[in-house]
Input
Amino acid sequence: MQTNSTTMILKEIVTPLLRWYHSHARILPWRENPNPYFVWISEIMLQQTRVEAVKPYFDRFISALPTVESLAEVPENELLKLWEGLGYYNRARNLQKSAQEIVINHDGKLPANYKKLLSLPGIGPYTAGAIASIAYQIPVPAVDGNVLRVITRLLASRDDIMKEKTRKKIESYLAQVIPANEAGNFNQSLMELGATVCLPKGAAKCYSCPLKQICLSFAEDCISEIPVKTPKKTKRIESYTMLRLQYENKIALQKRPSTGLLASLWELPHLDNHMGQAQIIHYLQEKNYKVKNITPLPPSKHIFTHIEWHMIGYYIELEQIPAKSNYHWISPQNLIDDYAIPTAFKGYL
DNA sequence: AATACGGGGTA
DNA sequence: TACCCAGTATT
Output
């Protein structure tokens, strides 16, 4: 073990951070009973997702699926319905794959082992560290965006936090100072500080930071310059015309492909580009749908991480549909109960 | 190493 | 707008 200046600084934060966390930890649903299953579910939900967004999903999810076994067995449509609107839907499917593996290979319990956790689908270095430390008190780091920001600022490091190398370096530093009996509290205290005090984009509340005496960026007055992040590339724009098709009080839906964006979720029928009423009527007539009434719906925009959807839409009442319609015709109540529909389409439902 | 993968909150 | 969020999997 090395004891360079970096490690010495990090050793100094342990006690003040734990003391601060003891009195400032937010009360969160998944902290009430931090059993491995609840910790796991919460950590998956929290990937790239804010605490406030997760809260209602977490409570509903663990009520519906309180055990690893129940998650392993739930039908996919029910699972996706529980995840509807939360985004990154592969998280839900990977959760179930892992649950099935855990039932088969680990006696239905999350393994108390960092590498075994890491091998499960949907669990990467951060989540493996979070579960290991929070649920099992195993002294391994859990480095998320908060921790990257807190530590680079603490050290006044200009390392690019988008690079894996930076994360690994910080993990190796932290591994040397994690207190043996409070691994979970220590990791959570770093994240909590990042989430509530050491805020991004010039919003840091250094005046109330328990580490301001130690923080090199605070001393050098360069908080606003750290962390360094490589800029992300611009989004592409895609245009669609959404069809809100109505026939005998039922709505047309179709299932999205099993791979790619919003895989396997349900969607409204739609055409590429922005089409006029005449083009839509022509398109439907060719497929033997007879239009009774068509009215334009207001444009809407949905922004993904890497794509922007620019949508227009039409509300269309049909008086006849072909014997073999490619669409699924769903009653409104059935749609609410059983069909997971991404937020992007909600503007036209 | 770069890109795909949601959705919402904030300055 | 642009950035950011208790990141991971795939290419």
About this structure: The longest strand of chain A covers residues 290-303. Residues 42-51, 53-54, 88, 90-91, 94, 121-127, 130, 142, 144-147, 187-188, 191-192, 194-195, 200-201, 229, 232 of chain A lie near DNA strand C (CB under 10 Å from a C1').
